[in-house]
Amino acid sequence: MIISVSHLSKQYEIYKKEAGFIGSLKSLVSRKYETVQAVDDVTFEISEGELVGFIGPNGAGKTTTLKCLSGLLYPTAGKIEVLGYTPFDRKYAYLKQIALVMGQKNQLWWDLPAQETFLLNKEIYEIPDDVYAYTLGQLVELLDVKHLLQVQVRKLSLGERMKMELIAALLHNPKVLFLDEPTIGLDVVMQKQMRDFVKNYNELQKSTILLTSHYMEDVRQLASRVIIIDHGKILYDGKLDNLVKKFASHKVLSVVLDSYVERNKFEEIGTVVSYEYPKVVIRVKRKDSNTAASSLLKKFPVDDLNIEEPDIEDVIRDVFTKK
Amino acid sequence: MRYVRIFFYYFQGAFAERGRSFVWFLISFLNPLILLLFWSGAAKSGATFGQWTLSDLASYYFLLIIADALLDAHIEETVARIDIQEGGLTKYLVQPFSYVIQKLFEESPWRMIQGFFGILVFLLFRFGFGFVISIQTDPSLVCLCVVMMISGYAMSFLFKMILGLSALWTTDYRGLSELVGVLMLIFAGFVMPLEFFHPILKQIAILLPFPYIIYFPIIAFQGKLIAIEMIKIILIQWVWICGFIIIYRKVWQRGVRLYTGIGQ
After folding, report:
1. Measuring CA to CA, which residue among B151, B121, B118 is closest to residue B243?
2. B223 in reach of chain A (CB within 8 A)
3. Which residues of chain A does B10 touch, with a Cβ-Cβ cutoff of 8 Å?
4. Which pLDDT score, from 0 to 100, does residue A4 have?
5. pTM for this structure?
6. What CA–CA distance (Å, rounded) separates B35 from B48?
7. Neighbouring residues of B63: CB distance < 8 A, sequence distance ≥ 6
Protein backbone atom coordinates (compact mmCIF):
# COMPACT_ATOMS: atom_id res chain seq x y z
CA MET A 1 0.00 0.00 0.00
CA ILE A 2 1.23 3.48 -0.86
CA ILE A 3 -1.02 5.26 1.64
CA SER A 4 -2.16 3.69 4.85
CA VAL A 5 -4.29 5.61 7.33
CA SER A 6 -5.34 3.96 10.54
CA HIS A 7 -7.75 5.51 13.08
CA LEU A 8 -6.66 9.02 12.20
CA SER A 9 -8.11 11.79 14.35
CA LYS A 10 -7.39 15.49 14.36
CA GLN A 11 -8.82 17.94 16.85
CA TYR A 12 -8.56 21.71 17.00
CA GLU A 13 -9.30 23.98 19.90
CA ILE A 14 -11.08 27.13 18.95
CA TYR A 15 -11.84 30.12 21.13
CA LYS A 16 -15.50 31.12 21.22
CA LYS A 17 -16.05 34.76 22.03
CA GLU A 18 -19.36 36.02 23.31
CA ALA A 19 -20.82 38.81 21.22
CA GLY A 20 -20.48 42.47 22.15
CA PHE A 21 -18.36 44.61 24.44
CA ILE A 22 -19.30 42.63 27.57
CA GLY A 23 -18.13 39.52 25.75
CA SER A 24 -14.79 41.19 25.09
CA LEU A 25 -14.42 42.09 28.77
CA LYS A 26 -15.40 38.57 29.87
CA SER A 27 -12.77 37.12 27.57
CA LEU A 28 -10.11 38.90 29.62
CA VAL A 29 -11.05 36.83 32.68
CA SER A 30 -12.19 33.53 31.24
CA ARG A 31 -12.27 32.15 27.76
CA LYS A 32 -14.39 29.37 26.41
CA TYR A 33 -12.62 26.96 24.12
CA GLU A 34 -14.37 24.40 22.01
CA THR A 35 -12.79 21.29 20.63
CA VAL A 36 -13.52 20.73 16.97
CA GLN A 37 -13.19 17.17 15.77
CA ALA A 38 -12.00 17.83 12.22
CA VAL A 39 -11.18 14.19 11.47
CA ASP A 40 -12.66 11.39 13.54
CA ASP A 41 -11.24 7.86 13.46
CA VAL A 42 -10.61 7.69 9.75
CA THR A 43 -9.14 4.51 8.28
CA PHE A 44 -8.38 3.75 4.63
CA GLU A 45 -5.70 2.45 2.32
CA ILE A 46 -4.71 3.45 -1.20
CA SER A 47 -2.69 1.32 -3.59
CA GLU A 48 -0.05 2.44 -6.05
CA GLY A 49 -1.43 4.20 -9.12
CA GLU A 50 -4.96 4.63 -7.73
CA LEU A 51 -6.83 7.87 -8.32
CA VAL A 52 -9.18 8.37 -5.42
CA GLY A 53 -11.78 11.11 -5.04
CA PHE A 54 -12.30 12.55 -1.60
CA ILE A 55 -15.75 14.10 -1.33
CA GLY A 56 -17.49 15.99 1.40
CA PRO A 57 -19.20 19.29 2.15
CA ASN A 58 -17.29 22.29 3.50
CA GLY A 59 -15.69 21.54 6.85
CA ALA A 60 -16.10 17.78 6.41
CA GLY A 61 -12.43 17.11 7.06
CA LYS A 62 -11.16 16.49 3.51
CA THR A 63 -8.45 19.12 3.48
CA THR A 64 -7.43 18.32 7.06
CA THR A 65 -6.92 14.69 6.08
CA LEU A 66 -4.92 15.78 3.04
CA LYS A 67 -2.80 18.05 5.21
CA CYS A 68 -2.13 15.20 7.65
CA LEU A 69 -1.11 12.98 4.73
CA SER A 70 1.25 15.56 3.29
CA GLY A 71 2.88 16.20 6.67
CA LEU A 72 1.50 19.67 7.29
CA LEU A 73 -0.53 18.73 10.31
CA TYR A 74 0.33 16.60 13.26
CA PRO A 75 -2.47 14.12 13.96
CA THR A 76 -4.08 14.07 17.40
CA ALA A 77 -4.32 10.27 17.22
CA GLY A 78 -3.86 7.44 14.78
CA LYS A 79 -1.20 6.32 12.40
CA ILE A 80 -0.38 7.43 8.87
CA GLU A 81 2.12 5.93 6.49
CA VAL A 82 2.75 7.29 3.03
CA LEU A 83 5.42 5.58 0.91
CA GLY A 84 6.64 3.98 4.13
CA TYR A 85 7.20 7.34 5.84
CA THR A 86 5.41 9.06 8.67
CA PRO A 87 4.42 12.29 6.93
CA PHE A 88 4.81 14.64 9.90
CA ASP A 89 8.50 13.72 10.25
CA ARG A 90 8.81 15.64 6.98
CA LYS A 91 11.93 13.78 5.92
CA TYR A 92 13.37 15.33 2.78
CA ALA A 93 13.39 11.88 1.14
CA TYR A 94 9.63 11.78 1.67
CA LEU A 95 8.92 15.34 0.59
CA LYS A 96 10.80 14.73 -2.66
CA GLN A 97 8.26 12.03 -3.55
CA ILE A 98 5.05 13.91 -2.90
CA ALA A 99 3.33 17.07 -4.08
CA LEU A 100 0.45 19.03 -2.66
CA VAL A 101 -1.50 21.31 -4.97
CA MET A 102 -4.06 23.57 -3.38
CA GLY A 103 -6.41 25.29 -5.78
CA GLN A 104 -6.66 28.37 -3.61
CA LYS A 105 -2.94 28.71 -2.88
CA ASN A 106 -0.25 30.20 -5.00
CA GLN A 107 3.37 29.11 -4.84
CA LEU A 108 4.54 31.00 -7.91
CA TRP A 109 6.48 34.27 -7.85
CA TRP A 110 3.92 36.91 -8.67
CA ASP A 111 6.17 39.40 -10.42
CA LEU A 112 8.33 36.96 -12.38
CA PRO A 113 7.51 34.49 -15.14
CA ALA A 114 6.55 31.02 -13.90
CA GLN A 115 9.73 29.55 -15.36
CA GLU A 116 11.70 31.27 -12.57
CA THR A 117 9.70 29.34 -9.97
CA PHE A 118 10.29 26.17 -11.98
CA LEU A 119 14.05 26.78 -11.86
CA LEU A 120 13.87 27.43 -8.12
CA ASN A 121 11.97 24.18 -7.63
CA LYS A 122 14.54 22.37 -9.77
CA GLU A 123 17.18 23.37 -7.23
CA ILE A 124 15.01 22.76 -4.18
CA TYR A 125 14.11 19.25 -5.34
CA GLU A 126 17.61 18.63 -6.75
CA ILE A 127 16.28 17.62 -10.14
CA PRO A 128 19.05 16.71 -12.61
CA ASP A 129 19.26 18.98 -15.69
CA ASP A 130 18.20 16.32 -18.20
CA VAL A 131 15.27 15.11 -16.08
CA TYR A 132 14.16 18.72 -15.57
CA ALA A 133 14.30 19.50 -19.29
CA TYR A 134 12.40 16.33 -20.20
CA THR A 135 9.71 16.66 -17.50
CA LEU A 136 9.18 20.35 -18.14
CA GLY A 137 8.88 19.74 -21.87
CA GLN A 138 6.36 16.97 -21.29
CA LEU A 139 4.23 18.99 -18.85
CA VAL A 140 4.34 22.10 -21.01
CA GLU A 141 3.15 20.08 -23.97
CA LEU A 142 0.41 18.30 -22.04
CA LEU A 143 -0.92 21.59 -20.69
CA ASP A 144 -0.18 23.60 -23.84
CA VAL A 145 1.52 26.52 -22.09
CA LYS A 146 4.77 26.93 -24.01
CA HIS A 147 3.82 30.48 -25.03
CA LEU A 148 3.20 31.45 -21.39
CA LEU A 149 6.51 30.42 -19.83
CA GLN A 150 8.04 33.87 -20.12
CA VAL A 151 4.95 35.82 -19.10
CA GLN A 152 4.80 37.36 -15.62
CA VAL A 153 2.55 35.28 -13.37
CA ARG A 154 0.50 38.36 -12.49
CA LYS A 155 -0.47 38.66 -16.17
CA LEU A 156 -1.84 35.10 -16.41
CA SER A 157 -5.49 34.16 -16.10
CA LEU A 158 -6.61 32.01 -13.17
CA GLY A 159 -6.71 28.90 -15.35
CA GLU A 160 -3.27 29.58 -16.82
CA ARG A 161 -1.88 30.15 -13.35
CA MET A 162 -3.37 26.87 -12.18
CA LYS A 163 -1.63 25.08 -15.04
CA MET A 164 1.66 26.67 -14.01
CA GLU A 165 1.01 25.68 -10.39
CA LEU A 166 0.58 22.10 -11.53
CA ILE A 167 3.83 22.18 -13.49
CA ALA A 168 5.69 23.63 -10.49
CA ALA A 169 4.29 20.87 -8.31
CA LEU A 170 4.99 18.03 -10.74
CA LEU A 171 8.50 18.86 -11.95
CA HIS A 172 10.04 16.41 -9.51
CA ASN A 173 7.77 13.58 -10.71
CA PRO A 174 6.06 12.91 -7.38
CA LYS A 175 4.92 9.38 -6.69
CA VAL A 176 2.01 10.66 -4.65
CA LEU A 177 -0.02 13.70 -5.58
CA PHE A 178 -2.48 15.42 -3.27
CA LEU A 179 -4.84 17.67 -5.21
CA ASP A 180 -7.04 19.93 -3.14
CA GLU A 181 -9.78 21.54 -5.20
CA PRO A 182 -7.65 21.84 -8.36
CA THR A 183 -10.52 23.15 -10.48
CA ILE A 184 -11.96 25.67 -8.04
CA GLY A 185 -12.89 28.95 -9.69
CA LEU A 186 -12.07 27.73 -13.21
CA ASP A 187 -14.48 28.01 -16.12
CA VAL A 188 -15.96 24.82 -17.59
CA VAL A 189 -13.49 24.66 -20.48
CA MET A 190 -10.50 25.00 -18.18
CA GLN A 191 -12.02 22.52 -15.72
CA LYS A 192 -12.20 19.96 -18.51
CA GLN A 193 -8.60 20.63 -19.53
CA MET A 194 -7.49 20.14 -15.94
CA ARG A 195 -9.41 16.89 -15.62
CA ASP A 196 -7.97 15.58 -18.87
CA PHE A 197 -4.50 16.49 -17.70
CA VAL A 198 -4.87 14.78 -14.31
CA LYS A 199 -6.26 11.67 -16.00
CA ASN A 200 -3.42 11.55 -18.55
CA TYR A 201 -0.83 12.23 -15.88
CA ASN A 202 -2.15 9.43 -13.71
CA GLU A 203 -2.07 7.00 -16.63
CA LEU A 204 1.35 8.09 -17.87
CA GLN A 205 3.20 8.35 -14.57
CA LYS A 206 1.30 5.69 -12.62
CA SER A 207 1.35 8.11 -9.72
CA THR A 208 -1.08 7.77 -6.85
CA ILE A 209 -3.51 10.67 -6.71
CA LEU A 210 -5.84 11.73 -3.94
CA LEU A 211 -8.22 14.40 -5.13
CA THR A 212 -10.69 16.56 -3.25
CA SER A 213 -13.25 18.57 -5.12
CA HIS A 214 -16.59 20.23 -4.72
CA TYR A 215 -17.34 19.55 -8.36
CA MET A 216 -18.88 16.12 -8.77
CA GLU A 217 -17.88 16.21 -12.41
CA ASP A 218 -14.21 16.10 -11.35
CA VAL A 219 -14.79 12.98 -9.31
CA ARG A 220 -17.11 11.38 -11.85
CA GLN A 221 -14.61 11.87 -14.67
CA LEU A 222 -11.47 10.99 -12.77
CA ALA A 223 -11.99 8.68 -9.85
CA SER A 224 -13.25 5.12 -9.96
CA ARG A 225 -13.04 4.99 -6.19
CA VAL A 226 -14.47 7.60 -3.84
CA ILE A 227 -14.20 8.23 -0.15
CA ILE A 228 -17.09 10.24 1.25
CA ILE A 229 -16.40 12.09 4.45
CA ASP A 230 -18.69 14.20 6.59
CA HIS A 231 -18.22 15.59 10.09
CA GLY A 232 -14.77 14.00 10.05
CA LYS A 233 -16.08 10.46 9.56
CA ILE A 234 -15.95 8.25 6.51
CA LEU A 235 -19.45 7.50 5.26
CA TYR A 236 -18.47 5.52 2.22
CA ASP A 237 -15.33 4.10 0.67
CA GLY A 238 -15.68 2.20 -2.55
CA LYS A 239 -16.44 2.31 -6.23
CA LEU A 240 -18.42 5.24 -7.51
CA ASP A 241 -20.95 2.92 -9.21
CA ASN A 242 -21.66 1.04 -5.99
CA LEU A 243 -22.29 4.30 -4.18
CA VAL A 244 -25.55 4.74 -6.06
CA LYS A 245 -26.69 1.20 -5.32
CA LYS A 246 -25.84 1.56 -1.65
CA PHE A 247 -27.28 4.98 -0.94
CA ALA A 248 -29.90 5.69 -3.59
CA SER A 249 -33.28 4.82 -2.10
CA HIS A 250 -35.07 5.59 -5.34
CA LYS A 251 -34.95 5.30 -9.12
CA VAL A 252 -36.08 7.70 -11.78
CA LEU A 253 -38.66 6.87 -14.47
CA SER A 254 -38.32 9.02 -17.56
CA VAL A 255 -41.44 8.85 -19.68
CA VAL A 256 -42.38 10.27 -23.08
CA LEU A 257 -46.15 10.47 -23.52
CA ASP A 258 -48.25 9.90 -26.63
CA SER A 259 -50.99 12.26 -25.52
CA TYR A 260 -51.52 14.78 -22.77
CA VAL A 261 -52.31 13.54 -19.24
CA GLU A 262 -52.89 15.78 -16.25
CA ARG A 263 -49.90 16.05 -13.91
CA ASN A 264 -51.76 14.94 -10.76
CA LYS A 265 -52.61 11.59 -12.35
CA PHE A 266 -48.98 10.54 -12.04
CA GLU A 267 -48.91 11.17 -8.29
CA GLU A 268 -50.28 7.65 -7.65
CA ILE A 269 -47.12 6.23 -9.29
CA GLY A 270 -44.54 8.33 -7.45
CA THR A 271 -43.20 11.85 -6.94
CA VAL A 272 -43.30 13.93 -10.09
CA VAL A 273 -39.93 15.59 -10.40
CA SER A 274 -40.74 17.47 -13.61
CA TYR A 275 -43.46 17.55 -16.22
CA GLU A 276 -43.00 19.29 -19.53
CA TYR A 277 -45.34 17.60 -21.93
CA PRO A 278 -44.60 15.16 -23.51
CA LYS A 279 -41.80 14.43 -21.00
CA VAL A 280 -42.43 13.48 -17.40
CA VAL A 281 -39.88 12.43 -14.78
CA ILE A 282 -41.13 10.46 -11.79
CA ARG A 283 -39.20 9.45 -8.72
CA VAL A 284 -40.17 6.08 -7.25
CA LYS A 285 -38.89 3.86 -4.46
CA ARG A 286 -36.08 1.66 -5.68
CA LYS A 287 -37.82 -1.61 -4.78
CA ASP A 288 -41.07 -0.48 -6.47
CA SER A 289 -39.52 0.68 -9.73
CA ASN A 290 -40.56 -2.32 -11.82
CA THR A 291 -44.13 -2.30 -10.54
CA ALA A 292 -44.35 1.45 -11.10
CA ALA A 293 -43.05 1.08 -14.66
CA SER A 294 -45.58 -1.63 -15.41
CA SER A 295 -48.43 0.52 -13.99
CA LEU A 296 -47.32 3.43 -16.13
CA LEU A 297 -47.37 1.31 -19.26
CA LYS A 298 -50.81 -0.05 -18.39
CA LYS A 299 -52.54 3.15 -17.33
CA PHE A 300 -51.02 5.88 -19.49
CA PRO A 301 -50.37 6.52 -23.19
CA VAL A 302 -46.63 5.90 -22.99
CA ASP A 303 -44.49 6.28 -26.09
CA ASP A 304 -41.16 5.62 -24.39
CA LEU A 305 -40.04 4.72 -20.87
CA ASN A 306 -36.65 4.46 -19.19
CA ILE A 307 -35.76 3.33 -15.70
CA GLU A 308 -32.66 5.27 -14.61
CA GLU A 309 -30.37 5.53 -11.64
CA PRO A 310 -30.58 8.92 -9.95
CA ASP A 311 -27.85 11.46 -10.58
CA ILE A 312 -24.82 10.80 -8.43
CA GLU A 313 -24.81 14.39 -7.23
CA ASP A 314 -28.37 13.94 -5.92
CA VAL A 315 -27.39 10.73 -4.18
CA ILE A 316 -24.47 12.37 -2.44
CA ARG A 317 -26.57 15.37 -1.49
CA ASP A 318 -29.09 12.96 0.02
CA VAL A 319 -26.33 11.20 1.95
CA PHE A 320 -25.17 14.48 3.48
CA THR A 321 -28.61 15.82 4.26
CA LYS A 322 -29.78 12.56 5.86
CA LYS A 323 -26.66 12.61 8.04
CA MET B 1 26.60 25.81 -5.56
CA ARG B 2 22.98 24.73 -5.12
CA TYR B 3 22.57 27.21 -2.27
CA VAL B 4 24.16 29.98 -4.33
CA ARG B 5 21.80 29.29 -7.21
CA ILE B 6 18.78 29.30 -4.91
CA PHE B 7 19.98 32.58 -3.42
CA PHE B 8 20.22 34.16 -6.86
CA TYR B 9 16.69 33.05 -7.75
CA TYR B 10 15.49 34.82 -4.63
CA PHE B 11 17.64 37.80 -5.54
CA GLN B 12 15.77 38.01 -8.84
CA GLY B 13 12.49 38.04 -6.93
CA ALA B 14 13.61 40.98 -4.78
CA PHE B 15 15.20 42.75 -7.75
CA ALA B 16 11.88 42.61 -9.63
CA GLU B 17 10.42 44.66 -6.77
CA ARG B 18 13.30 47.18 -6.58
CA GLY B 19 10.83 50.08 -6.75
CA ARG B 20 9.32 48.99 -3.44
CA SER B 21 12.82 48.52 -2.04
CA PHE B 22 13.62 52.12 -2.93
CA VAL B 23 10.49 53.46 -1.20
CA TRP B 24 11.31 51.48 1.94
CA PHE B 25 14.87 52.74 1.77
CA LEU B 26 13.57 56.32 1.79
CA ILE B 27 12.13 55.64 5.26
CA SER B 28 15.56 54.45 6.47
CA PHE B 29 17.06 57.50 4.81
CA LEU B 30 14.75 60.29 5.99
CA ASN B 31 14.66 59.58 9.73
CA PRO B 32 18.46 59.86 10.29
CA LEU B 33 18.57 62.87 7.98
CA ILE B 34 15.97 64.69 10.09
CA LEU B 35 17.91 63.85 13.26
CA LEU B 36 21.12 65.08 11.63
CA LEU B 37 19.44 68.38 10.82
CA PHE B 38 18.39 68.62 14.47
CA TRP B 39 21.97 68.07 15.69
CA SER B 40 23.32 70.57 13.12
CA GLY B 41 20.88 73.17 14.45
CA ALA B 42 21.98 72.42 18.01
CA ALA B 43 25.66 72.81 17.00
CA LYS B 44 24.96 76.14 15.33
CA SER B 45 23.38 77.40 18.54
CA GLY B 46 26.61 76.55 20.38
CA ALA B 47 25.76 73.15 21.90
CA THR B 48 28.59 70.64 22.43
CA PHE B 49 28.28 66.85 22.35
CA GLY B 50 30.94 65.53 24.74
CA GLN B 51 33.75 63.96 22.79
CA TRP B 52 31.70 63.87 19.60
CA THR B 53 32.10 66.53 16.93
CA LEU B 54 29.41 67.47 14.42
CA SER B 55 31.45 65.58 11.82
CA ASP B 56 31.29 62.48 14.06
CA LEU B 57 27.54 62.86 14.30
CA ALA B 58 27.23 63.30 10.53
CA SER B 59 29.29 60.12 10.02
CA TYR B 60 27.14 58.32 12.59
CA TYR B 61 23.85 59.18 10.92
CA PHE B 62 25.08 58.49 7.40
CA LEU B 63 26.36 55.11 8.53
CA LEU B 64 23.04 54.62 10.32
CA ILE B 65 21.27 55.02 6.98
CA ILE B 66 23.34 52.18 5.55
CA ALA B 67 23.14 50.04 8.71
CA ASP B 68 19.35 50.37 8.94
CA ALA B 69 18.90 49.45 5.28
CA LEU B 70 21.47 46.66 5.34
CA LEU B 71 21.27 45.08 8.79
CA ASP B 72 17.77 45.54 10.15
CA ALA B 73 15.84 42.50 8.91
CA HIS B 74 12.09 42.86 8.38
CA ILE B 75 11.19 39.23 7.84
CA GLU B 76 8.82 39.04 10.84
CA GLU B 77 5.89 40.53 8.92
CA THR B 78 6.19 37.94 6.13
CA VAL B 79 6.56 35.06 8.57
CA ALA B 80 3.70 36.12 10.84
CA ARG B 81 1.14 37.48 8.44
CA ILE B 82 1.73 35.84 5.07
CA ASP B 83 3.16 32.50 6.15
CA ILE B 84 1.39 31.77 9.43
CA GLN B 85 -1.84 33.74 9.37
CA GLU B 86 -2.56 33.47 5.65
CA GLY B 87 -1.23 29.93 5.26
CA GLY B 88 1.84 30.59 3.10
CA LEU B 89 3.85 28.30 5.37
CA THR B 90 2.11 25.34 3.72
CA LYS B 91 4.24 25.77 0.61
CA TYR B 92 7.50 25.64 2.58
CA LEU B 93 6.48 22.73 4.78
CA VAL B 94 6.03 20.38 1.83
CA GLN B 95 9.37 21.31 0.27
CA PRO B 96 12.57 19.37 0.95
CA PHE B 97 14.48 22.49 1.98
CA SER B 98 14.95 24.35 5.24
CA TYR B 99 12.34 27.04 5.92
CA VAL B 100 14.74 29.31 7.78
CA ILE B 101 17.31 29.18 4.99
CA GLN B 102 14.68 29.98 2.39
CA LYS B 103 13.62 32.94 4.51
CA LEU B 104 17.26 34.03 4.82
CA PHE B 105 17.60 33.87 1.04
CA GLU B 106 14.32 35.73 0.68
CA GLU B 107 15.23 38.54 3.08
CA SER B 108 18.93 39.07 2.35
CA PRO B 109 18.51 40.38 -1.23
CA TRP B 110 16.13 43.05 0.09
CA ARG B 111 18.77 44.13 2.61
CA MET B 112 21.46 44.12 -0.08
CA ILE B 113 19.43 46.21 -2.50
CA GLN B 114 18.43 48.72 0.17
CA GLY B 115 21.99 48.74 1.55
CA PHE B 116 23.20 49.53 -1.95
CA PHE B 117 20.91 52.56 -2.04
CA GLY B 118 22.37 53.54 1.34
CA ILE B 119 25.92 53.32 0.04
CA LEU B 120 24.94 55.44 -2.99
CA VAL B 121 23.53 58.13 -0.68
CA PHE B 122 26.65 57.93 1.49
CA LEU B 123 28.92 58.41 -1.55
CA LEU B 124 26.71 61.19 -2.87
CA PHE B 125 26.94 63.16 0.36
CA ARG B 126 30.66 62.40 0.82
CA PHE B 127 31.87 63.19 -2.69
CA GLY B 128 28.95 65.09 -4.23
CA PHE B 129 28.19 67.49 -1.41
CA GLY B 130 31.63 67.32 0.26
CA PHE B 131 30.41 66.19 3.71
CA VAL B 132 33.26 65.29 6.04
CA ILE B 133 32.50 61.70 6.98
CA SER B 134 35.11 59.86 8.99
CA ILE B 135 35.27 56.08 8.62
CA GLN B 136 37.69 53.32 9.57
CA THR B 137 40.41 52.84 6.96
CA ASP B 138 42.76 50.31 8.60
CA PRO B 139 42.24 47.14 6.45
CA SER B 140 42.45 44.68 9.37
CA LEU B 141 39.97 46.72 11.41
CA VAL B 142 37.71 47.09 8.38
CA CYS B 143 37.68 43.28 8.17
CA LEU B 144 36.59 43.11 11.81
CA CYS B 145 33.91 45.71 11.04
CA VAL B 146 32.61 43.51 8.22
CA VAL B 147 32.51 40.49 10.54
CA MET B 148 30.65 42.60 13.09
CA MET B 149 28.19 43.71 10.43
CA ILE B 150 27.51 40.16 9.24
CA SER B 151 27.07 39.03 12.84
CA GLY B 152 24.72 41.97 13.44
CA TYR B 153 22.62 40.93 10.46
CA ALA B 154 22.57 37.30 11.63
CA MET B 155 21.34 38.47 15.04
CA SER B 156 18.71 40.69 13.52
CA PHE B 157 17.49 37.99 11.13
CA LEU B 158 17.19 35.27 13.77
CA PHE B 159 15.57 37.62 16.26
CA LYS B 160 12.97 38.72 13.71
CA MET B 161 12.31 35.11 12.67
CA ILE B 162 11.53 34.24 16.30
CA LEU B 163 9.35 37.32 16.53
CA GLY B 164 7.47 36.26 13.38
CA LEU B 165 6.95 32.73 14.70
CA SER B 166 5.24 34.20 17.77
CA ALA B 167 2.17 34.43 15.49
CA LEU B 168 1.78 30.67 15.98
CA TRP B 169 0.69 31.42 19.55
CA THR B 170 -0.74 34.91 19.43
CA THR B 171 -3.82 36.16 17.61
CA ASP B 172 -2.25 39.56 17.05
CA TYR B 173 1.53 39.41 16.86
CA ARG B 174 1.65 43.11 16.00
CA GLY B 175 1.60 44.25 19.63
CA LEU B 176 4.82 42.39 20.32
CA SER B 177 6.28 43.47 17.02
CA GLU B 178 5.56 47.16 17.71
CA LEU B 179 7.02 46.86 21.21
CA VAL B 180 10.21 45.41 19.75
CA GLY B 181 10.20 48.25 17.22
CA VAL B 182 10.14 50.82 20.01
CA LEU B 183 12.92 49.06 21.93
CA MET B 184 14.98 48.85 18.74
CA LEU B 185 14.44 52.54 18.11
CA ILE B 186 15.80 53.46 21.51
CA PHE B 187 18.45 50.85 22.26
CA ALA B 188 19.83 50.11 18.79
CA GLY B 189 20.94 53.73 18.47
CA PHE B 190 18.37 54.92 15.95
CA VAL B 191 17.57 58.08 17.89
CA MET B 192 21.07 58.98 19.06
CA PRO B 193 24.39 57.33 19.85
CA LEU B 194 24.33 55.35 23.12
CA GLU B 195 27.20 57.59 24.25
CA PHE B 196 24.64 60.28 24.99
CA PHE B 197 22.46 58.02 27.15
CA HIS B 198 22.31 58.25 30.93
CA PRO B 199 24.86 55.70 32.29
CA ILE B 200 22.10 53.47 33.72
CA LEU B 201 20.18 53.46 30.43
CA LYS B 202 23.41 52.75 28.58
CA GLN B 203 24.09 49.84 30.94
CA ILE B 204 20.62 48.45 30.21
CA ALA B 205 21.20 48.89 26.49
CA ILE B 206 24.37 46.82 26.37
CA LEU B 207 22.59 43.97 28.16
CA LEU B 208 20.05 43.84 25.32
CA PRO B 209 20.71 42.48 21.82
CA PHE B 210 19.69 45.65 19.97
CA PRO B 211 22.92 47.72 20.08
CA TYR B 212 24.89 44.74 18.74
CA ILE B 213 22.74 44.78 15.62
CA ILE B 214 23.09 48.44 14.62
CA TYR B 215 24.96 50.66 17.08
CA PHE B 216 28.25 48.81 17.56
CA PRO B 217 28.78 48.04 13.86
CA ILE B 218 28.28 51.76 13.16
CA ILE B 219 30.74 53.06 15.72
CA ALA B 220 33.20 50.35 14.70
CA PHE B 221 33.05 51.64 11.13
CA GLN B 222 33.46 55.15 12.47
CA GLY B 223 36.76 54.08 13.99
CA LYS B 224 35.58 54.61 17.56
CA LEU B 225 36.49 51.08 18.67
CA ILE B 226 39.90 49.50 18.98
CA ALA B 227 40.58 45.92 17.81
CA ILE B 228 40.19 44.29 21.23
CA GLU B 229 36.85 46.01 21.82
CA MET B 230 35.66 44.89 18.41
CA ILE B 231 36.64 41.28 19.07
CA LYS B 232 34.84 41.42 22.42
CA ILE B 233 31.69 42.72 20.74
CA ILE B 234 31.87 40.06 18.02
CA LEU B 235 32.09 37.40 20.73
CA ILE B 236 29.04 38.86 22.47
CA GLN B 237 27.23 38.91 19.12
CA TRP B 238 27.97 35.21 18.69
CA VAL B 239 26.70 34.42 22.16
CA TRP B 240 23.44 36.12 21.14
CA ILE B 241 23.41 34.29 17.80
CA CYS B 242 23.85 30.91 19.52
CA GLY B 243 21.09 31.82 21.98
CA PHE B 244 18.78 32.84 19.15
CA ILE B 245 19.51 29.63 17.23
CA ILE B 246 18.58 27.53 20.27
CA ILE B 247 15.42 29.57 20.87
CA TYR B 248 14.50 29.46 17.18
CA ARG B 249 14.81 25.68 17.05
CA LYS B 250 12.66 25.21 20.17
CA VAL B 251 10.06 27.71 18.97
CA TRP B 252 9.93 26.11 15.51
CA GLN B 253 9.68 22.54 16.82
CA ARG B 254 6.82 23.41 19.17
CA GLY B 255 5.17 26.02 17.02
CA VAL B 256 4.96 24.04 13.82
CA ARG B 257 2.75 21.53 15.62
CA LEU B 258 0.30 24.34 16.26
CA TYR B 259 0.21 25.39 12.64
CA THR B 260 -3.17 24.59 11.22
CA GLY B 261 -3.58 26.59 8.05
CA ILE B 262 -7.32 26.27 8.70
CA GLY B 263 -9.36 27.21 5.68
CA GLN B 264 -6.21 27.45 3.56
Report:
1. B151
2. no
3. 120
4. 94
5. 0.84
6. 16
7. B122, B135, B218, B221, B222
